[in-house]
Write a structure and sequence with these properties.
This protein has about 130 residues and is mostly helical. About 75% of the residues lie in helices and about 0% in strands.
Length: about 130
């Protein structure tokens, strides 16, 4: 009974009456993908094993993509915080020290264009993820 519930979770149909057993290669691949109940793996048919391998591979691929997306979002947050802090610092220096701020205009313009490039890259990434 428990075997049927586990297989139904992954969308595996019941075994056909004349379906041959899964090959050793299929059983090993299923075990490597993290499907643990050894008794279940032994009684799988060839077609069932193929469907289960596809389902487990898709599940693993989705988990990897989700993890990479979270990593990318975290790095963009850090970059944007650093950028806005530097931008505020440059703005404060230029406003507070107008006599000395003239030689700081070129670094400030460079920071603005650098930040604009980061914003455009972030915006493109967000559009691609949608």
């Amino acid at each position: 009974m428990e075997v049927n519930l586990i297989l139904r979770k992954y969308g595996v149909p019941p075994r056909g009456p004349y379906e041959p057993n899964a090959t050793k290669n299929q059983m090993h691949k299923i075990w490597k993908l993290g499907f643990d109940p050894h008794e279940t793996i032994q009684f799988l048919g060839k077609e069932q094993a193929s469907i289960l391998i596809d389902a487990l591979t898709a599940q693993e691929q989705a988990a990897v993509e989700f993890h990479l997306l979270n990593i990318q979002r975290g790095s963009h947050k850090k970059k944007s915080i650093i950028f806005f802090t530097l931008l505020l610092l440059c703005t404060w220096v230029i406003v507070e020290w107008p006599a000395q701020g003239l030689f700081l205009i070129f670094p400030a313009i460079t920071l603005v264009f650098l930040a604009l490039g980061h914003f455009i890259a972030w915006f493109r990434l967000q559009m691609r993820l949608c």
